[in-house]
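Re: the multi-chain job from yesterday

Posting the exact lines I submitted so nobody has to dig through the queue logs.
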Amino acid sequence: AQSVTQPDARVTVSEGASLQLRCKYSYSGTPYLFWYVQYPRQGLQLLLKYYSGDPVVQGVNGFEAEFIKSNSSFHLRKASVHWSDSAVYFCAVSMATGGNNKLTFGQGTVLSVIP
Amino acid sequence: EAAVTQSPRSKVAVTGGKVTLSCHQTNNHDYMYWYRQDTGHGLRLIHYSYVADSTEKGDIPDGYKASRPSQENFSLILELASLSQTAVYFCASSDVWGAYAEQFFGPGTRLTVL
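And the result, structure tokens for all chains:
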């Protein structure tokens, strides 16, 4: 069965600093990979997704993620964070075969950006 | 603007009582989903639907029913609420069926069962 692990429950960074949120997945096939963000009092919104091609995928608001197959990882990065990036970030994976639309989510990482 | 809305946004229920959570989408999407989130855990799929008047079981359907009376509306029903069902519930929709489909989420309903 597929699974997703986000090892950092909480991350605090200073505004303007760089950011990396970690995500590791367990899946025997070819995964579709996603990062969603949940801002306070809002639903989850898609930041970016990846299936194939360039392993570095660009998302909204300056976020990017890199797929490293050998490490089963899909870490999220941003070069310079802003206070408005404070939110909960979820990594998710779905199966590339069988047309299964089921998303498996990680536990989420709470990002706090301090002035 | 296309959106997924949920009502109520929060609810306190008593053990053994019936709870209905509602979801409405204006995305014109065929597919809708109900997830629950527990503190420190990711979202888990309870039920989903790909057409009106039909629902399917997800990964954790026990203790929950779902109803899809129209394309726009999808309800989650707890016939006999239990303490273990205290969680945040999210509804989502998507326009296609497939592993690469983006899901659009509502803001969530915080349910507390006492």
